[in-house]
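3.2 Worked example (two chains)
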Amino acid sequence: MRKRFVLLLFGLSIFLSSGVQAQCFLAFNEQNQPVTTFCVNETITFKDNSGRPNVTEFYDFDDRDGVVPDQPPRHVFHTPGTYTVTQLTGVGNLCRRTFVVKAAAPPSAPVLQKVTLQASSIQIQLQTTGVNDLVVERAATASGTFTAVKTLNSVASGQSQHTVEVPSLEGCYRVRVTNLCSGKEDIVSNTVCGQGLTVTAGDRRNDLTWGLNQSSGAVTGYQLLRGGQLYQTLPGTQTSFTDEQVACGRQYTYQLVAILQNGSQSASLPVQVETRGTTPPSAPLLVVGFDLQNRVVLETIVPDQETFKEQAIYRSQNGGNFSLISEKQPKNALDAMVGNLSAPVCYQVAYTDSCNLVSPRSVAACPAILKATLQADGGVQLTWNSYEGFPSGVGTQTLQLLDDQGNVYWSTQVTGQNYLDAKPQTKFQRLTYRLLSQAQNASYTSFSNTAVIDQSFQFHFPTAFTPNQDGLNDLFRPVGAPFASKFTLQVLNRWGQIIFESKDPQAGWDGMHNGKPAPPETYLYRMEAVDVNGKRITQKGTVTLIR
């Protein structure tokens, strides 16, 4: 309540303090001397100077956080700066005075840890041991005359960073401790000079040059950054570097950091350059294979230091010459017009980089072509030509059987160029095989085309069944794999009445009719089915129910 009352009276009393603020109250140091400027961590006593007897007084020592004069008249300021002190005496009697608090000398001189050049400013990193005002100074050379550039007020103890506008990036920098209680300004940091860097684009290379850093203390080495990441560490005597790990038409950003003997650093302005050239780029690696639609998929792998704009594709079939089949294609391209897969097919590509220079053609890449033949005994003979074009050859080959959705249902590792699937799966009428080739000592893979075999209906109906729930021949249903996309089974009695019907090959007749056991006798059955190729199949016969 008292604080609210004081705040309400503050505005009414401002005019009373004008013109007489020097007589309202005084500040005394530890030697009981009146002062208007004093040091941090010094006990200051404030006393009323109005001449009134028996004055009860309270103070607010910093109006930057609001004016609430409820403190006793003795105070210690811990941070340098300019402070407005407000006195309250009686009801509504407020008086304001301004005092300057100066810093004590730091235990040690500040350290200028790093100077980084920016577009029109520098960024400095400092390490300080006290709270002080610091003046940033600049000179043309390390031994030249330094002039003030900017004052940093109340820099906290510890590490800090500051951005300082400068008239020129060239030159040397240091900081001076100012606003000290001693009145002296002879505490200065080490000197760090700005680091220059020039980058010129050559023929598929970037040439970097710089002058030795002129900071006091020897340069122990340089760190070269590319794209903001450490790229090279260079000796302190080196003044040039050629970067050949570049791609034509690609932009690169370099920055050079001088490492000084005292551990300080000086970082140049980042320099961006676009690499040019007249030398063709290096040849690509081509990996080819088939997708599930038996289209050839071409994946072009360009060396890391190169750029890619477009490519031309060349094809050879059955050992013939390579001929151009398409141009201006992306890295991952398709050839849906490969046609007959009975003969080997091979591809080459040549790409154009960002400087419109064309690479040599890739090494020929030839996908494995898989063939499947149905044997008289129901087995499937598979043959293929091995993949060609992996840098170190083929490491492993895996034969796969795919389900109706193209997922791998079964696989086995194979060697050579043939394999006999002696007992094919009976789950699918259509058997879809493909070969996966894995590169030796690399992650490249390639799929062959899919080779398809359609199995014939492999089922029969029993001539009798015994529905006595003994687990043997309890149901009348097809035995084997009907491979039907559509299926209907009907059972008729001797009068031609349908007493059982099912559209599921696995759901057979259990010998019941209208909830009662059917009599043991001979029944007619008829089956209609459509296989995966749309072929209609019918079958009729008799079955004897035995009880």
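3.2.1 Second chain
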Amino acid sequence: MERVNNSKGKFARVLMLFAVILLPWLVAIFWVNKIGEEEKPVTVNIINYKADSLPPPVDHSKYEVLQQNFETPQQVTEACISCHNKTGHDIMHTSHWKWSRPYVNENGDTVELGKKNIINNFCIGTNSNEPRCTSCHIGYGWKNKDFNFKAELNIDCIICHDQTGTYKKFPTAAGYPVKEEKAFGGKKFLPPDYNRVAQNVGMPKRENCGACHYFGGGGNNVKHGDLEKILTKTTKEVDIHMGIDGEDMSCTACHASDRHDIQGQLYSVSSYNQNRTSCEQCHTETPHENTIINQHANRVACQTCHIPTYAKGAPTKMDWDWSTAGRHNEDGSITVEKDSNGVMTYHGKKGSFKWAKNVTPEYAWFNGNTDHYLIGDKVEDTTVAVQINTLLGSFDDLESKIIPMKVHRGKQIYDPVNKTLIIPHLFGKDSTAYWKHFDWNKASITGMEKAGLPYSGEFTFINTEMYWPINHMVTSREESLKCMDCHSRDGRLANLAGFYMPGRDYNNILDTIGVLLIILAFAGVILHGSLRYFSKK
């Protein structure tokens, strides 16, 4: 009986030694699963936001000044500012009007930086192409560099405040609506009923903001990837904030304004970490019940986990190759090609496109500041893609967080002698507009002349990249990323270098040593237990 008891005691000690080795692993696995499956909080703490905080709408149809017979949009503006007599002055100081913001360059000089002097890798630049580009300007008549930015009657009040849904700018009319019925891109445009529109104005709705922001780059969801017309009336599966079955929030709930200066800046044209809109302004910096997840929020942006994919409705443009443009059919018509879903993959005016839907973002360290390729900057290294906008940040920068982004890759026209990107003259009916006569050299001469830059007479095409942080199409807590989506060797952050991340990073030597130590530990336990067991026999 004593021998049996001794055997049981030895066996129990062997089990205890195994438990000491295995227990930490079991606890770690349990804790990871617990974080991913923790119970839902009963409420979500929100600050700085009340859904019913807006004042009641004003019935503008009661105002006598709006009951006149308006014949031009400027007459509507004149009536607006007769009451809102300081608004014109306020608007003229905003980036929506100027299309620029002050920026201090590396030489210490302050310059106005924005769409007027920054290149992109979609339709490239506004210089010499104003009537087409400025169809999304909040003004009338910006046809060239002579546009009067100080004339209050050039302000388009209606585009942001129309509540009828009938007011449309014509795509090639420098911000004006049509005076008679016209068609463009298969759509019909009708002259506005200015009397009806003027008497039905109010706070901007999604349709007002989306009239421009959904269609940047020439079509629905072309540029941003997370801003498309599906958001006008969507579900919480697409965006939990904007879903009509979710919070049903408007754009202005986050992008509030002070004297028409709207909070939030577009990273593709804004350089400083100022006046940004963030999740933390409502959700605080510690929104989770779990401490470990809140600690992640110190270095991981909310969007990284809560926007697993973007372009949930319409596909977004991921690649644009201008070098293939210019093809025509045998009958002289412009070549247009579409895929099986009806998405355009080639257009003779613009070249080749690649699109994607339900896209997994790429990721970067970002501190809110950006650097930009400005018109006239030299390209020093042509072996790598030119970064149109560089997102600044790193793991060592404690202000930086990991963010999700869309990377749009392009191939655009370049001057190999002057080593500068070219702004071609694309739009127009004149003899040098590329979309009219398909001559890159003539388009480059005119475009660079209008931009005030030299052109050597030689051109080629060069690879470029442009980075678009993803902020919309926020998913629910249940659909957000789980730990192993990132903490694994083939996870989402596999290509984000510069720091050590558990579960992702490894060292062959250290891993081999670790495995050997585990094997030796098991062997030691077995050997020790065996010796103790057999030595007592």
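3.3 Remarks
The chain has a mean pLDDT of 89.
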